[in-house]
Amino acid sequence: MKTACSSGARPARSPSADTCGTTRVSAPAAELKDQVASPTVPLLDLASDQIGPLLVASEAEGFRFLRRVVGEWEAGTNRFTRKGEALLGNFVDDRLVAICGLMRDPYQGEATVGRLRNLYVLPEYRGRAIGAALARRVIELAESSFKVLRLRAGTPQAAVLYERLGFTPTTKLKDCTHVMYFES
Hints:
The chain is an alpha+beta fold. The chain contains 5 helices and 7 strands. Helix content is 29%, strand content 21%.
């Protein structure tokens, strides 16, 4: 599956020793329409000033997965650096507004099975195809590294998105709600 998403270079952001903030500043809805999302780019670090607003918003919605991503990143246990893996972000006016990861499926022992993980878009940026662009880029990257791409949709809205992108719903696979097979 090919997309128009670009993996153009963005300067690496320097790590920050600060802890993640607990406040979020949102632009008024009218201003959001004028903001242009950047291409999907690899994240080379998780600076707290960038990831902090996503952590706060995701936890306010009851999601814990971004906290796990940051914890694993800080501990060095998962930096999405193995063959075929990537942690991607999308920026609007230099603000990180969405994140998505691709990694070997930790629930499978096979190196040919990838997993789309941790897709999250700030609520005020949803409905602008940012999540779809991130997921499409993950699919594009996965196609060259894995035979199978799996995921677990956390909400009905996420399931609809993944099915629109070509994933097949499944109840037969453990730790997985959707799967995509690539031709060899």
